[in-house]
Design a protein that fits this description.
Oligomer: heterodimer
Largest interface: A-B, 11 and 12 residues
Organism (chain B): Apilactobacillus kunkeei
Strand content of chain B: under 5%
Structural class of chain B: mainly alpha
Number of domains of chain A: 2
Shape of chain B: globular
InterPro entries (chain B): Cro/C1-type_HTH, Lambda_DNA-bd_dom_sf
Pfam family, one (chain B): HTH_3
Protein name (chain B): Putative HTH-type transcriptional regulator
Keywords (chain B): DNA-binding
CATH class of chain B: Mainly Alpha
Strand content of chain A: under 5%
Order of helices and strands of chain A: HHHHH
Helix content of chain B: 55-70%
Order of helices and strands of chain B: HHHHH
CATH topology of chain B: 434 Repressor (Amino-terminal Domain)
Largest sheet of chain B: none
Chain lengths: ~160, ~70
């Protein structure tokens, strides 16, 4: 069955390794709707809170708070989606022999490292600006190295869970 | 929903992965359908029946339930 570019994007974004059949679609739609409602409520509330807070606090502090809150909400949404995907085993690869296991294993490692490098390189500039604003310029490089090592360990753990016998 | 997918698939000597591939679903989804833990759409039911060379009544109709 041919998958559209959008379906491929959805699968890549959520780390789904199986055919995007109706079961996977139901699971993703259900979780996606819950996240969308949560985000809409959060955006509305944060916009109202901003309008009020900006009256008493300095705009720079309010913006800093909003950035941190946005990142926190993004993490919650990602964690929720990951939990749903893991619970329904949509991230598990289905392979029948050793050759397929090796191919899927390689594909898994390459795609995860590609995503990590892309994300970190995109995030590098805004985060370094943010660190400079906080007066923590000397912590930029160690933080990135720490993040990178942490992500590599997470990728390896996930690889072991799925591909090691 | 109780069904006879596993029974008929075994009788037809079709492997789970082959049936899943032929109807465009994952093995996990087919396993859930066979266990009655996931209710497939009519379109998928029809495709499964077609792949197993049978009909919807034979696969999914439970005579014990009124």
């Amino acid at each position: 069955m041919k998958e559209s570019l959008f379906i491929k994007l959805v699968k890549y974004f959520y780390g789904i390794s199986k055919p995007f059949d109706e079961f996977a679609r139901d699971v993703i739609n259900d979780a996606g709707n819950k996240i969308a409602i949560g985000l809409m409520v959060y955006l509305l509330m944060s916009a109202y809170a901003l309008m009020v807070l900006i009256r008493w606090f300095s705009p720079m502090n309010v913006v800093s708070g909003v950035i941190m809150a946005d990142i926190f909400v993004h993490l919650i949404a990602s964690a929720y989606m990951s939990r749903i995907i893991r619970k329904n085993k949509l991230d598990c690869y289905e392979f029948d022999n050793e050759e397929e296991r090796k191919i899927y294993g390689k594909r898994f490692i390459i795609s995860r490292i590609f995503t990590t490098v892309l994300t970190l390189s995109l995030a590098m500039y805004p985060i370094s600006v943010w660190f400079r604003y906080l007066g923590m310029s000397e912590s930029i490089f160690p933080s990135f190295i720490g993040c990178f090592i942490g992500i590599l360990v997470a990728i390896y753990t996930q690889y072991c869970r799925q591909f090691k016998k | 929903m109780e069904n006879r997918v596993r029974e008929i698939r075994t009788k037809e000597n079709v492997q789970q992965k082959d049936l899943a591939k032929s109807v465009g679903i994952s093995r996990q989804t087919l396993s859930l359908i066979e266990k009655g833990e996931y209710n497939p759409s009519l379109k998928l039911c029809f495709n499964i029946a077609k792949a197993l060379k049978t009909d919807l009544n034979t696969l999914f109709w439970n005579e014990g339930v009124e």
